[in-house]
Design a protein that fits this description.
- This protein is of the alpha+beta class.
- The protein has helices at 2-22, 48-54, 57-63, 74-84, 89-104, 139-205, 211-244, 269-292, 323-388, 394-429, and strands at residues 111-118, 124-135, 295-303, 307-314.
- The chain has a four-stranded antiparallel beta sheet with strand order 1-2-3-4, covered by helices on one side.
- β1 and β2 (124-135) form a beta hairpin.
- It starts with a helix and ends in a 9-residue tail after the last helix.
- 32% of the residues are buried.
- Mean pLDDT is 78; it is low at 1-31, 33-44 and 120-125.
């Protein structure tokens, strides 16, 4: 007979919990009751990732981002290789945040747990306690919002981490390519200057010129050779570091890819992170506020000491003289979270404006440097023809040649600086990797 009564009590508790779960979403409620997802949700046929994106503007925005790197180009090859070797510690945090959000999504269900106590007679009393919150000032909903915002924060951090990794790899690649090109120019300069040295050496042998000019040329040759070696070492070091973060050796990759990106092409990742953190901070404030206010719940016990459903009321934090100030501090935290977003927008706009100006200036200077190189080449050709006609000395031609070689080196440097500036803008906007791939 006792077993039958226990079974009936447990059945009663199960029926009660199901009834409470069905009544937790009140029509026309203000969100203070314990709400839950309805089975008629139109997104129920979507996959978990698609449902997550449909419920989050931030995550859907991240997934819609397309890389500005030309498909199949040298930049794309570098980005693909380094992303394949990424340990992606931020991905682990995103996975953990998603699991926490999944756990929080079920917080509207009743909680069931054992209760074991020792009576005054020395007997052990074991029972099962069922608790269901009916009214909590929006705490359960805020806990779900917090978990959702936590996922969004982790997703933005993952996007930032991925874009930063691609930018670091491309910076190394650009440094290596620039060093390679400058080393090739130094090699050509060394060959031409060696010809001038031979001419001067023959003139010294014939008594036409003195030894001082020959020594000057040999010093210039030593400087050119030193610069060539330095550029070669820079290229080697950059490729060694790049290969260390890639799944394959990238020494064979060469060439440059055109990168076209505007400062207003997408919302900066730093702003998206601030917005996600704002939502998380607001949810946290709602949870803290609900802890200071009395809620309403129902509790029942089944087992050796069974009892029927009992209404309970109370709060997590006792009400004291400082409760009012605590509630005001919570409201101030909400306002502060909104101001952080405004600050993030301002700082992002400042950075993008600076990067945009630097990119435009570098591109303009690269075009001017190309024109100056062409003019220096014309002057060199003119001096060479005058030298051949006996109107110029060898050192005159050498001086003009140095100007031409310097213009070539400067043109290469500005060309790569302009590309790097565009990549910085793309990193700020999170456009160095496809969001769907991340």
């Amino acid at each position: 007979m006792g077993q039958f009564i226990g079974f009936s009590t447990r059945g009663f508790l199960l029926i009660t919990s199901m009834s409470l779960a069905g009544c937790m979403s009140l029509p026309g409620g203000d969100g203070n009751e314990v709400s839950r997802f309805k089975s008629s949700d139109p997104t129920s046929t979507l996959t978990a990732r698609e449902k997550e994106a449909s419920q989050s503007v931030i995550i859907s925005g991240l997934q819609a981002r397309q890389s500005v790197l030309p498909n199949g180009g040298s930049f794309d090859q570098v980005a693909t290789s380094v992303m394949a070797a990424n340990s992606r510690s931020a991905e682990s945090e995103l996975r953990a945040a998603r699991l926490r959000a999944e756990a929080r999504s079920k917080n509207w269900l009743p909680t069931i747990g054992p209760s074991i106590s020792l009576t005054s007679l020395g007997a052990v009393v074991a029972s099962i306690v069922l608790d269901q919150v009916l009214f909590d000032h929006g705490r359960k909903k805020a806990e779900r919002d917090f978990a959702k915002a936590d996922v969004e924060v982790a997703a933005v951090v993952l996007a930032q981490d991925s874009n930063e990794r691609v930018y670091t790899a491309l910076s190394l690649y650009i440094t290596a390519q620039q060093a390679r090109e400058r080393a090739a120019l130094s090699q050509a300069s060394f060959k031409d200057m060696s010809h001038f040295e031979w001419i001067m050496e023959e003139r010294v042998k014939g008594g036409v010129s003195d030894m001082s000019d020959l020594n000057v040329l040999r010093q210039k040759l030593a400087e050119i050779r030193s610069n060539q070696n330095a550029q070669t070492e820079t290229a080697g070091a950059s490729f060694a570091e790049l290969n260390a973060m890639s799944v394959r050796k990238l020494n064979g990759v060469s060439g440059m890819s055109g990168v076209s990106v505007r400062a207003d092409a997408a919302q900066p990742l730093s702003v998206m992170l601030a917005e996600a953190e704002k939502e998380r901070a607001i949810a946290e404030a709602v949870i803290a506020r609900a802890g200071h206010l009395p809620g309403l719940g129902v509790s029942a016990t089944a087992g050796s000491n069974s009892s029927g459903p009992t209404l309970t009321a109370g709060s997590d934090t006792p009400i004291g003289f400082g409760t009012g100030a605590s509630l005001k501090a919570i409201e101030a935290a909400k306002e502060g979270a909104g101001r952080k977003v405004s600050q993030a927008v301002e700082e992002a706009n400042r950075r993008l404006a600076r990067l945009q100006s630097e990119a435009q200036a570098a591109e303009r200077q690269a075009v001017e440097a190309q024109k100056l190189t062409a003019q220096a080449k014309q002057n060199l050709d003119l001096f060479q023809s005058q030298y051949d006609a006996g109107q110029r000395q060898v050192m005159d031609v050498v001086g003009v040649y140095e100007t031409f070689a310097s213009a070539q080196q400067n043109e290469v440097q500005l060309k790569y600086r302009a590309v790097l500036s565009r990549l910085e803008i793309a990193q700020e906007l999170g456009l160095l990797a496809d969001g769907s791939e991340i």
